[in-house]
From TrEMBL:
Gene3D superfamilies registered for this protein in UniProt: 3.30.70.270, EAL domain
EAL domain location: 189-287
Domain GGDEF: 50-180
Any Pfam family matching the protein: EAL
Gene Ontology molecular function: any one: diguanylate cyclase activity
Keywords annotated in UniProt: Nucleotidyltransferase, Transferase
EC top class, as a word: transferase
EC id: 2.7.7.65
Name this polypeptide is given: Diguanylate cyclase
Superkingdom field: Bacteria
Length: 287
């Protein structure tokens, strides 16, 4: 009998070190995106006794910090926020940095406990951060997504993006829980963004002209042209809804040019003026 033995202690230690590097964020020392995705997959396939919730946190104000105080202040701020979040959650909860100014927390407990945790996270982020460049003040937006069995990792991340987007729209320092209506709103935005590209060619855009009346002079002093969109299936779309979509899609310049050309064409056909009163001798044309 021949026995061949090899000491694997050093190799095992190197593998553990490489694994720690692969699943750790060097800036904060927290788990990174790959680590939290692995934990999220485990929570979906092997549920715990308590319900799980994913909190997606996005910091607001880092761009201003970088412009005013430099990258070192950004690094110090992100590291401090990570430390505060880790101190805010329970020991079994997972806090990870997703990259940039985004963090994720995989927590376990009831919906009410998750909401209270989100409020605490908002509060600790808003506390001033002391850096070598001075005080830094940040805010955050949080999306709250329940971990449901049968839902994949990508679906959970998509829901968290929708919830964070809704929190951003609500204002700074808000948390929003995902529900089905957010998905319906996202689907509507995607449809409008897609259909807006050919709306002008299909003749769906038009201008609504409204008179501007001077009560003191008792006459029409001008005309206001408002851009409108009559969608083929959704009907009238308010400008407040589709103009921001056009700005993000890079279509706003085309819409502005078409609106100016159309308004100028209509204005050139308007009469020069009308009498102000019934007497031709006392009246003068309006401009």
């Amino acid at each position: 009998m021949v026995l061949y033995c090899r000491d694997m202690t050093e190799r095992h230690a190197r593998e553990q070190a490489l694994q720690a590097i692969a699943y750790a964020d060097p800036m904060t020392g927290l788990p990174n995106r790959a680590a939290v995705l692995r934990s999220l997959q485990d929570a979906l396939t092997d549920p715990a006794d308590a319900p799980g919730t994913l909190l997606m946190i996005e910091l607001d104000g880092l761009a201003a910090v970088r412009a005013n105080a430099g990258r070192e202040a950004v690094t110090a701020s992100v590291a401090e926020v990570g430390r505060r979040l880790r101190a805010t959650v329970r020991g079994e909860d997972v806090v990870a940095r997703m990259g940039g100014g985004a963090f994720a927390i995989l927590a376990y407990g009831t919906d009410a406990e998750a909401d209270r945790l989100a409020d605490r996270c908002l509060a600790v982020v808003e506390q001033p951060i002391v850096t070598t460049a001075g005080l830094v003040e940040l805010t955050s937006s949080i999306g709250i997504v329940p971990i449901e069995q049968g839902c994949g990792v990508e679906a959970v991340l998509e829901r968290s993006d929708l919830a964070v987007h809704a929190a951003h729209e609500a204002g700074k320092g808000y948390a929003r829980r995902y529900d089905a209506s957010l998905g319906d709103a996202a689907a509507r935005r995607d449809l409008l963004r897609h259909d807006l590209q050919g709306a002008r060619a299909r003749g769906e855009l038009y201008l609504l002209f409204q008179p501007i009346v001077s009560l003191r002079e008792r006459r029409v002093t001008g005309v206001e042209a408002d851009l409108r969109w009559r969608h083929a299936t959704l009907g009238e779309i308010p400008a407040a809804e589709f103009v921001p979509l056009a700005e993000r899609a890079g279509l706003i310049g085309e819409l502005v040019r078409w609106s100016l050309e159309e308004a100028a064409t209509v204005a050139s056909r308007l009469p020069a003026g009308r009498p102000r009163c019934g007497s031709a001798r006392r009246c003068r044309p309006a401009t």
